């Protein structure tokens, strides 16, 4: 049985939220309150944005806020400096891992990735520079990935004596097919984003890093202005939470669609179309979700709590 989650305090401005190794800004930057597009930036440029436990905690904190903040419609994820993310910080190694039973361990990259995956707001990953390992797997739950043609990307785990992490064995083959995924994980090589080995992992690529980020922001703005957040989220969940057969899927999407026909976002979308104007979508999961939502069984993937050390 899942326990009740702690309440989340939504900040007036995300630019005032204190985080380590991660920066959050509005678009446009400096807006006094949260904007429809929020930019999350990996912020260790001196270390090529190599992943830290502080980043994991920052993502779990900020994505939980973005998930329930109705002011925010789209998240753009990018990196500071020349590289998007060099993967795990190998200089720190794994010495900081807590001693625990093998089956109780929860991969820190996986916790970051699931924070993105479970957020109802879509993420556009703007990989303005090269990325390997965890730098790649953290982008897999994003709805859109945009790469730089001058950069190299790869799943280099076998070249470091490691296996896949961050739930990437779930995401990667579903995004690019088993054949491409097996090639990337067997060779551990790095390739430009338009390499055939990536399939359509990168939906768009651009020559310059600035173009990557600019396009991501442009696309995020368009989505925020034109797309129903609830319809978009439910559509993505119908893909990821697919029951597995055509018949079962028919039952699930029929129930969701039937509800959406008479939902207020549908009526607003049709009205805006005929009136030739931008829609003003206001439906929320809390107030307007289909009765069948969620149609999957929630999984408690947390660790068992431990007793705190007694105070002497």
TrEMBL record:
**Membrane-spanning residues:** none
This protein's superkingdom?
Answer: Eukaryota
Q: Which Gene3D superfamilies match?
A: 2-enoyl-CoA Hydratase, Chain A, domain 1 (3.90.226.10), Lyase 2-enoyl-coa Hydratase, Chain A, domain 2 (1.10.12.10)
The family database entries (Pfam families) matched by this protein are listed as:
ECH_1
Similarity field? Belongs to the enoyl-CoA hydratase/isomerase family.
Q: What is this protein called?
A: Uncharacterized protein
Which species does the entry assign this protein to? Penicillium olsonii
